[in-house]
Specification:
Layout: H1 8-16, H2 22-40, H3 49-63, E1 77-81, H4 108-115, E2 119-124, H5 152-159, E3 165-170, H6 176-182, E4 185-188, E5 208-213, H7 216-226, E6 243-247, H8 256-271, E7 276-280, H9 285-303, H10 305-311, H11 317-326, H12 331-355, E8 359-363, H13 383-388, E9 392-399, E10 405-411, H14 417-432
Parallel strand pairs: 1-2, 1-3, 6-7, 6-8
Antiparallel strand pairs: 3-5, 4-5, 4-9, 8-10, 9-10
Helix pairs in contact: 2-3, 7-14, 9-10, 9-11, 9-12
């Protein structure tokens, strides 16, 4: 069932230069969806998808007949997580609530993709309100396993070859974890780097727009379109970044399988010439985890106050339980939880300065994708970096004995996202030879 998805940069270049016919590309993709989608359920159903896309392609080609004037994402198909408002598509947010509740202006991130020439393939499945109640999506590598959450459909759509770019979000681990489980690249920029306008909120203090592509070159192509103030940088080619390994109770949260795989990844980086420094970090990870959880629940309760009061019976069990717990969080506790974000960021960046670390590396998930689709897996390896608002990127990093993908998480300094992406290009190559 699984095929290697076509890289974003190669697809765009072929479309812009007419080496790949735009209409043939759409028809081949729709054929692929008809064949595979019944087995993985990555997309929300859309009658007439093929005809709509062909009509939009005609308009796009008429607007940009000259290949030299075509925009950077000309003709490429992109998936949009179903918590983003997108003109022409209803928003359900993985819930049973009336779609009319979520109507509003299109999300800024979706508008930026359209302005860059991308065509919206369709809405992708999300967990209920981007929390932990899963949808029907399955992992393209093995449909008996979860693709992760909450951006489940976006990650699965890229991994299955439906699109080379898809939008997701991360409030705990909803971009990095599914990217790891699905064997693709996921990028969660610094908090606030991509506008969140037009996205149904989960926890406004940490909600971050992220995105998926098959490889790092695709991230580098899409980031200037989506991220505010993206800068082209060129670090010295002969100087490899120093990598920090956050040793201690945080790392111990990974499974034995995940830790063994991570040590193999570290060995591969060492053989490739990287300096990896083991740094005692995140000693209070249990307290960090608890503060993040309480903050997310409290802000969920705030975001859903009106909807929950009217439609409580339509919420699924875990989402409702989170909102009810959030209602117990007092103002003083919430303020303290929110304040801990910058404090944690400062602690982590101080350690980077002290030990001369350019970027942290750690497992992107505790292990491989769990079996079944009643859970989306554990986001524990992503939580502290999301809490601190730091940019994170998940790279494909081999496979476990069961054949499922593993991911390596790379984390950089706040608002230094460009360096994470540039450093990740060479690190991705090192992961191929482990």
């Amino acid at each position: 069932m699984f095929v290697s998805p076509v890289p974003l940069a190669a697809t765009v270049a072929a479309l812009r230069e007419n080496r790949l016919d735009l209409f043939a590309y759409i028809n081949e993709t729709c054929d692929r969806i008809e064949e595979v989608e019944p087995h993985i359920s990555a997309l929300l159903p859309e009658p007439g998808r093929r005809e709509r896309l062909l009509d939009e392609a005609r308009v796009l080609r008429e607007r940009f007949p000259d290949p030299l004037e075509r925009p950077p994402l000309y003709g490429v198909l992109c998936g949009v997580k179903d918590i983003f408002l997108a003109d022409g598509f209803p928003t359900h947010a993985g819930s049973l609530l009336p779609a009319a509740l979520f109507e509003g202006p299109e999300a800024e991130s979706v508008s930026r993709l359209r302005a860059a020439g991308a065509l919206v393939l369709g809405k992708t499945v999300t967990t209920e309100f981007a929390y932990f109640e899963p949808g029907p999506t399955r992992n393209p590598h093995n449909p008996a396993h979860t693709p992760g959450g909450s951006s489940s459909g976006s990650a699965a759509a890229v991994a299955a070859g439906f699109c080379s770019l898809a939008l997701g979000t991360q409030t705990i681990g909803s971009t990095i974890r599914p990217a790891s489980f699905c064997g693709i690249v996921g990028f969660k920029p610094s908090y606030g780097r991509i506008p969140i306008h037009g996205v149904i909120p989960c926890s406004v203090s940490v909600d971050t727009v992220g995105f998926f592509t098959p490889d790092v070159a695709g991230i580098a192509l899409a980031a200037p379109v989506l991220c505010d103030g993206w800068q082209a940088i060129q670090p010295a080619a002969e100087t490899l970044p120093v990598l920090g390994l956050p040793d201690g109770p945080y790392l111990a949260q990974a499974s034995p399988q995940g830790l063994a795989a991570f040590e193999r990844q570290v060995t591969a980086l060492d053989m490739a010439g990287y300096t990896v420094r083991r740094v005692q970090a995140l000693a209070d990870i249990e307290a960090i985890n608890r503060r993040h959880q309480r903050m997310v629940f409290a802000e969920m309760a705030q975001a859903h106050r009106v909807w929950f009061a009217r439609y409580e019976s339509l919420y699924r069990e875990r989402t409702a339980a989170a909102i009810r717990e959030g209602q117990t969080v007092g103002d003083d506790e919430l303020v303290a939880c929110q304040a801990s974000r910058e404090r944690l960021r400062g602690e982590l960046e101080t350690l980077m300065e002290q030990y001369g670390v350019d970027m942290w590396i750690c497992p992107a998930a505790p292990g491989t994708a769990p079996e079944g689709i009643t859970t989306t897996g554990n986001a524990i390896m992503n939580l502290p970096w999301t809490h601190a608002g730091m940019p994170a990127l998940s790279l494909p990093a081999g496979r476990a004995e069961n054949g499922l993908p593993l991911g390596l998480q790379c984390v950089g300094r706040f608002m230094r996202d460009e360096y994470v992406v540039v450093y990740a290009v060479a690190i991705a190559e090192a992961m191929l030879v482990q």
